[in-house]
Amino acid sequence: LPKHACVPYSFSVEFEEASDLLAETPDAATTSGSNQLTPQGHVAVAVDSGGSYGAEEEVEESDRTALLQEEKQQPGFWTFGYYQSFFDVDTSQVLDRIRGSLLPRPGHNFVRHHLRNRPDLYGPFWICATLAFVLAVTGNLTLVLAQRRDPSIHYSPQFHKVTVAGVTIYCYVWLVPLALWAFLRWRKGVRERMGPYTFLETVCVYGYSLFVFIPTVVLWLIPVPWLQWLFGGLALALSAASLVFTLWPVVREDTRAVVAVLLSTVVLLHALLAVGCKFYFFQPLPLAHPAPPTQAASLSPDLPPPPTSRAHTT
Amino acid sequence: MAKAAESSGDPGTTPPRPLFAGLSDISISQDIPVEGEITIPMRSHIREFDSSTLNESVQNTIMRDLKAVGKKFMHVLYPRKSNTLLRDWDLWGPLILCVTLALMLQRSSIDSEKDGGPQFAEVFVIVWFGAVTITLNSKLLGGNISFFQSLCVLGYCILPLTVAMLVCRLVLLAEPGPINFMVRFFVVIVMFAWSIVASTAFLADSQPPNRKALAIYPVFLFYFVISWMILTFTPQ
């Protein structure tokens, strides 16, 4: 009898599903949740004996089978289908998520409203790739424009900056969410209401929050310093706000000290990335001594250009 | 069988009957029809084909492959919705194009290590790993194109940009100046648009309809990066 054979499996699966559902919907009262579990176990066994139950149990039964279908189709991580599940987004969904990251609102949790707990890897991966290439290209363009104004600056394509940009941004979007996710899971015990985000959701949040830097980097072509700092500040504010508003519901119940330290670390790392990119890619130094690839603001912008005899014009 | 044994056991008097001669005397059940033709229509054809590629001259082999590559070049230069690139894919064309492009783009050896254009290996890596990444992306999004077909299309559609690189090299021999730059800029932009149109004509149909933009955007980024490398090339 197939129904009886699959009862233990369905019961344990169901328990996990129910606990996940409870974690995601903090408003659901825990008492009614636990009541749902035991009768369903009985329903699975007793349906075959033809007992007449109400319509409510039948609805739960169909929900249970629907849940079972979804659960059974989870492929192993060695199959291609597993990775395909992370790219299961449409164009309109990606655009909607980008819009959501550009306009953060205090009550509007990015993960709940836009991701709807279905994170994708398409957005973070291609936003990082675009940002890395745009950084390298506009940094190069800045040098071209600077050389037009001051022909003594030596122009060169500076191809190594592409590598530096790519490695930096990808490391940021993978390692910082890893640390954040690990930290939040470690503090999980303090929270009753809401489970922590999965690792992929954190990566998604960080990846989409970097989108606002793409137009900012293009706008950094304008060679007016205070305008550049203004745009940079605006982009940093938007991006960090999006991160903070997403993280706030998760860390809300923690002690004040931990919350303050965590949020300020997140914002500080983000600011460090923005300022580091600004200094490394947008310094039209005359390149007799190329800028060292550090992220700290140790470069002074007032270095006088030493006269070079290899001035070329494109 | 018994008759055959009898006759073979009789030495000297009659010449031995050939083996299995008695088989014709065995009666098979009359209601199983065992008549008909057994012919393999392609057989002689295949045998001719096999021996022809083994015995043909090297020139024939090379010319046949070159003609296939050249035919695909024509399909890229005049992009129509056709299946030639997808059906008979090969990777010779992309290899030739990538090596040509990398040879023309690499910096000279007297240039310093840190600044300057890309090395040969960097161009090669960007082209091939970029193509592999785009192919993986389109397959993960649910496209039904095979891995090598997609690599083939992306590699062949670099042809307009290689032509642009040749033109830029020639233009750079003239005197430098803003007109020089404008000509190169115009040529690169036109060839970039041509590459995108050609690859979209081949690749767009294999994607699910509501994800076409997601699959085409990385192609755009890929050709943009190659165009940027071509435009910023300065001979030292």
TrEMBL record, chain A:
UniProt xrefs under Pfam families: Yip1
Residue ranges of every copy of the Yip1 domain listed in the record: 102-274
Topology with respect to the bilayer: Multi-pass membrane protein
Entry keyword Lipid metabolism: no
Domain of life: Eukaryota
InterPro entries: Yip1_dom, Yip5/YIPF1/YIPF2
Location relative to the cell: Golgi apparatus membrane; Golgi apparatus, cis-Golgi network membrane
GO cellular component, as recorded: Golgi medial cisterna; Golgi membrane; Golgi trans cisterna; trans-Golgi network; transport vesicle
Transmembrane stretches, start-end: 121-143, 163-184, 205-223, 229-251, 258-281
Alphabetical UniProt keywords: Membrane, Transmembrane, Transmembrane helix
GO molecular function: small GTPase binding
Keyword Nucleotide-binding applies: no
One GO biological process term: vesicle-mediated transport
Family: Belongs to the YIP1 family.
PANTHER family: PROTEIN YIPF, PROTEIN YIPF2
UniProt protein name: Protein YIPF
Species lineage: Eukaryota, Metazoa, Chordata, Craniata, Vertebrata
Automatic annotation (TrEMBL), chain B:
Domain Yip1 as annotated: residue spans: 76-229
This protein's GO CC annotations: endoplasmic reticulum; Golgi medial cisterna; Golgi membrane; Golgi trans cisterna; trans-Golgi network
Keywords assigned: Membrane, Transmembrane, Transmembrane helix
InterPro entries for the chain: Yip1/4-like, Yip1_dom
GO biological process: endoplasmic reticulum to Golgi vesicle-mediated transport
Positions of transmembrane segments: 91-108, 120-141, 147-174, 181-203, 215-234
Pfam families given in the database record: Yip1
Annotated stretches, region: Disordered: 1-20
Location of this chain's protein in the cell: Golgi apparatus membrane; Membrane
Membrane topology annotation: Multi-pass membrane protein
PANTHER family: GOLGI MEMBRANE PROTEIN YIP1, PROTEIN YIPF6
Family: Belongs to the YIP1 family.
Name this polypeptide is given: Protein YIPF
Organism: Neovison vison (American mink)
